[in-house]
Amino acid sequence: MKEGAIHEAVCACGGLQIRVKGPPDYVSSCACQACQRRTGAPFGVTAIYLNEQIVGRSGESRAWRRIAASGNWVDYHFCPTCGSTVWWEAEARPTSVAIAGGAFADKDFPPPQRMLWTEHRAPWVRPPEGVPEYPQAP
């Protein structure tokens, strides 16, 4: 993802979008049960962007709040038509937004810099070589 370029994350039907400028602050993959259920996959990929990198949001979203293992809330914003989660905001990180990596549909999306909650991952799920793994959140 290029420095200064605008990148758009979009739901499956195209009705909900968020646009950000530049590369993510960091990328994580997470195998916690909440991410497994949110994505329908054995792990989720998350791009963290600073709030000042957001250049626009469009479309109707609905939000669902859950309480994380830390006790803090997380608000997931999803499309009411197709159900795709596009971004979420966390009480613990008020200066950033988390965006579903797959919503960018970009073959050049950067690899994760860490894998979280590996105690819940399927034994065949492995991060790229050299990526640190954490049994829970670091």
- The CATH architecture category equals Beta Complex
SS summary, helix count: 1
Q: Which percent range describes the beta-strand content?
A: 35-45%
CATH fold topology = Metal Binding Protein, Guanine Nucleotide Exchange Factor, Chain A
Give the overall average pLDDT: 94
Q: Characterize the main sheet.
A: 7 strands, mixed
Number of strands: 10
CATH C-level: Mainly Beta
Q: Would you kindly provide a written description of the structure presented here, covering whatever features stand out?
A:
The chain has 138 residues and is mostly beta strands. It has a single domain (6-120), classed as Metal Binding Protein, Guanine Nucleotide Exchange Factor, Chain A, CATH 2.170.150. The chain has one helix at 33-39, and strands at residues 6-10, 17-21, 26-30, 44-50, 54-58, 62-67, 73-78, 85-90, 96-100, 114-116. It is globular and about 35 Å long. It starts with 5 loop residues before the first strand and ends in a 22-residue tail after the last strand.
Furnish the topology, listing elements before pairings:
Elements: E1 6-10, E2 17-21, E3 26-30, H1 33-39, E4 44-50, E5 54-58, E6 62-67, E7 73-78, E8 85-90, E9 96-100, E10 114-116
Parallel strand pairs: 3-10
Antiparallel strand pairs: 1-2, 2-5, 3-4, 4-9, 6-7, 7-8, 8-9
